[in-house]
Amino acid sequence: MIHGEEVYRIGRLGKPHGVKGEISMQVDDDVFDRVDADFLVLMVDGILVPFYMEEYRFRTDTTALIKFEDVDTVERARELTNCDVYFLRRLADNADEDYTWSFFVGFDIVDAHSHQVLGRIAAADESTANVLFELADGRLIPAAEELIQHIDNDKKQITMELPQGILDL
Predict the structure, then answer these.
(1) Which of 4, 51, 107, 160 has a CA positioned 20 to 30 A from the CA of residue 21?
(2) CA 19 remoteness from chain centre
(3) 141 Rama class: left (phi>0) / alpha (psi -120 to 50) / beta
(4) Cβ–Cβ contacts within 10 Å for residue 21, how many?
């Protein structure tokens, strides 16, 4: 069984493409193209399920067409429409250090001065030029590389030097 803390979101499935079970995917992170991965993990009815890929190809920088094993009809592909797509963190750890912000969901933010955990990252908001980490308690922290002092993948912690008073906003 795959648990939520073992994966991070890399995209969302869209509409079927053609009649042989191929489906489009909005790609937030192309890690599956950079790492030797046989499968992606889909959220199906609240359960994380591995789906093995037969093949895939990119249509644009943000859209891929994927053919999963045992998904051979447009009807079967349609059942997967709007499923979120995830990738195993342990496989991504073997990738180059070129992570997307969404990889860090589930990590704790640690203050560089007090060494206290400020909160756990619940989401990465990339909708504007200034990316924000949304903590589980709703607070927002800028996800700027210049504020990050250290990333510990094993402990799932990001040590940040935050501007004074930013947590009071």
Answers:
(1) 4
(2) 29
(3) beta
(4) 22
Enumerate residues 6+ apart whose C-beta is below 8 A from 28.
9, 10, 11, 62, 100, 102, 126
The sheet carrying 148-152 orders its strands as: 140-142, 132-135, 117-125, 108-111, 157-160, 148-152
Query: Of 136, 127, 137, 135, which is closest to residue 162 (Cα–Cα)?
Result: 135
Q: Which two tokens stand for residue 60?
A: 């644009």
Give the sign of the dihedral formed by CA 20, CA 84, CA 39, CA 132: positive
For residue range 10-47, what is the model confidence (pLDDT) as tens digits? 999 999 998 899 999 999 888 888 888 899 999 999 99
Q: Which of 21, 32, 26 is nearest to 103 (CA)?
A: 32
The rounded distance, in Å, linking the Cα atoms of 38 and 49 is: 13
For the chain, the distance separating the N- and C-terminal CA atoms, rounded to the nearest angstrom, is 40
Q: List pLDDT tens digits, range 108-147.
A: 999 998 899 999 998 888 878 888 999 999 898 999 889 9
Q: Kindly state the tokens that stand for 132.
A: 């924000």
- Report H helices in 31-153: 31-34, 74-79, 89-92
